[in-house]
Design goal:
With about 450 residues, the chain is α/β, with parallel strands linked by helices. Helix content is about 35%, strand content about 15%. It has 19 helices and 15 strands. A five-stranded parallel β-sheet has the order 3-2-1-4-15, with helices on one face. It has a five-stranded parallel β-sheet with strand order 6-13-7-8-9. It starts with a helix and ends in a 6-residue tail after the last helix. The structure holds flavin-adenine dinucleotide.
Amino acid sequence: MEGKDIEKRTPIPERPVGERVKDFEEVSLGYSKEEAIKEAKRCLGCSRPLCVEGCPVGVEIPAFIERIKEGDFKGALLKIKEKNLLPSICGRVCPSEYQCESKCVLGRLGAPISIGALERAASDYGGEAEEESNGPPKPKRVAVIGSGPAGLTCAAELARDGVEVFVFEALHQLGGVLRYGIPSFRLPRAVIDRQIQRLKDMGVRMEGNVLVGRTIPFSDLRTKEGFDAVFIATGAGLPQLLGIKGENLEGVYSANEFLTRVNLMRADLFPQYGTPIKRGKRVAVIGGGNVAMDSARVALRLGADEVYIAYRRTEEEMPARRVEIEHAKEEGIRFLYLLSPLEIRGNEEKELICRKMRLSDELDESGRRKVFPTEETISLLVDVVVVAIGQRPNPLIPSLEPRLARGREGEILVDEEMRTSLEGVWAGGDIASGAATVILAMGMAKKAAQSIKKYLGISSRR
Ligand SMILES: Cc1cc2nc3c(=O)[nH]c(=O)nc-3n(C[C@H](O)[C@H](O)[C@H](O)COP(=O)(O)OP(=O)(O)OC[C@H]3O[C@@H](n4cnc5c(N)ncnc54)[C@H](O)[C@@H]3O)c2cc1C
């Protein structure tokens, strides 16, 4: 392949802005088969592939890309599935640019291989790529609490080796943040549904509307209910709030509530569905992560004329994925930097008063430039405010079980095998790491599953 072709990345087709802002259909169309093969052909197939080191679950990236080069999408999907059981999801939401793609040597010559989009293509065109099962079920039962990516991954890893798995989910629908947080224009519901159906086909039993700690006492799982092991994957769904005056006014939402109302409870279809939402004409979203981008883009699709993202630092420090920032900008979201909210006043029409901040050259513990308040303030006139400044681990189970050791942020403390301080109980995903990413939650869940199998005396296929 010519050097200059290697430098150029095959563009990923997207829906036109004017069309996509009117609905919740997927924004990125993904590669066609031909485009995927073209992009795969850019891969140099390095003998020491750094991209694999950049993947938290160690997917053998050059090996799956090699299969795509040959047009063997099913083979590519099977290769990915050796390490990652949710490729259709990760291919859409993984922050690949900070992980595998950031290590790709082609990044130095031009643009790195579009690994995330190729993973998506493998899952879109690879068919069902059947799971192998490991013989008849073993007489061991494991309870998984929470049906987000951590819970689903642990369940799949155990079910593959014949363990009887029960997933308990507090909400009426399964999928965790994938379902209630990430909007369908980034992750279509059909992709989540397919993934969950595959687990059910593997024999995993799943029950919604079960809040462990209330519907069933947590301590009953190992005793009365007779589970041999428990995996806690309850996530980080507790919103962090600003703690400012006016935060309790009508029309001021935590991102969690705002997104759940729309994504899970279909407030976008009110009154056809019973859940209402305030549809602001001018909406301010506070924060700079993926959650803020999603909230802003959802507000736009609910019919807002103006949507602002107010962030206390600058774009350079924003933790959101680059592609999400770009999509938000293209769609007309207005980014206001170096603003920190001080107070919300008013009623129907609100005044969001923010202090102007300044960046210093000093770095904080996250390696980002520190911010300091200035004397200046500005106010924005809006009718809805969405607060998206972070989430903390869900406190219910840790608060009911004092023997579970907890960290400073309320996360459940685990060892390198994801064992908690309680015999027979493991934890992983955001409940143990604090709010992180889908792939990190999956990586922790895989480690937990290996450790649970060892504890149960079950030999693993991998
Ligand atoms: C809006 C938003 C956008 C995001 N975008 C991205 C992205 O683009 N890329 C990325 O990699 N990551 C993203 N993330 C982060 C990612 O979604 C999380 O890191 C990941 O979902 C964590 O997985 P988990 O399985 O640990 O927890 P969760 O997905 O939070 O799942 C936990 C589940 O446990 C259930 N539960 C809680 N308590 C109980 C109980 N007592 N009994 C029964 N069930 C219970 C909850 O209802 C929930 O369904 C985003 C997060 C949000 C909020």
